[in-house]
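Example record

Each entry pairs one chain with its bound ligand, adenosine-5'-diphosphate.
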Amino acid sequence: MTASAAARPLMVLRDLSKRYDSSAGSLMALDGVNLEVLAGEFVAVVGKSGSGKSTLLNLASGIDTPSSGEVWIDGAAVHGMRQSELARWRGRHLGIVFQFFQLLPTLTVAENVMLPMDFCATYPARQRRARALALLAQLDIAAQADKLPSALSGGQQQRAAIARALANDAPIMVADEPTGNLDSDTTRQIMQLFADLAGQGKTVLMVTHERDFGPYFTRVVTLADGRIRAQGDGAAGIGRDDRTDQSANRVRHA
Ligand SMILES: Nc1ncnc2c1ncn2[C@@H]1O[C@H](COP(=O)(O)OP(=O)(O)O)[C@@H](O)[C@H]1O
Ligand SMILES: [Mg+2]
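Structure tokens for the complex follow.
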């Protein structure tokens, strides 16, 4: 795909581990993961529930801090950043999309999309609303701009969340099961949107169980017990064993 256009690692995870300690004992949610993601790649992260997929994404995006190991993004040592600088840095470099959209319920859709621009001051204040409206139009939900998120369907809310993730034109999109709460037709549309973004040069790291979209992925990374069990190109598809119980129960088209 577009990986050859700029074959440099945009994201480097080095010996990355995350341990959770509790009264029940110690759990290695992630255990010595090494991964390089090239600019323009569309990487799917798969694995059973509890295998460490969300932990991997949260560490890679600086939402969570590793117990040990390093996260480098575009040459920056994310693992060494202070919380105060991390949030703004993240807002400029990563667009993050969640399974349950996580739009702010008291702000309109357009205001939600403007939020990252406001927070990072990436665009002059007077340009932010116009840019938000342009992104919403690009995602075919311009008519929803001045509504509250609760007035939108799930698919529309996820489009709004994707618009928000694109607000600062960050090079990397990180998405954790972005279609996990959507019906199959909407899933197809949202996955196509991500494929288009990757085609336009965004680097995408996505936890997903959407087997039909294997050919779109430049790489499929399979996690098991916090470790990378396998890596392959997308055309090989995602194995049945790699779905969570939840997604295994969902209707899907052949
Ligand atoms: N905040 C936490 N405290 C304790 N254990 C956690 C926490 N977050 C995740 N875990 C555990 O770490 C493992 C990996 O979790 P996670 O990365 O969410 O898996 P996945 O996204 O693949 O379902 C699981 O066993 C989970 O229960
Ligand atoms: Mg998860």
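Strands lie at 9-22, 25-38, 42-46, 68-73, 76-77, 94-97, 172-176, 203-207, 219-224, 227-232.
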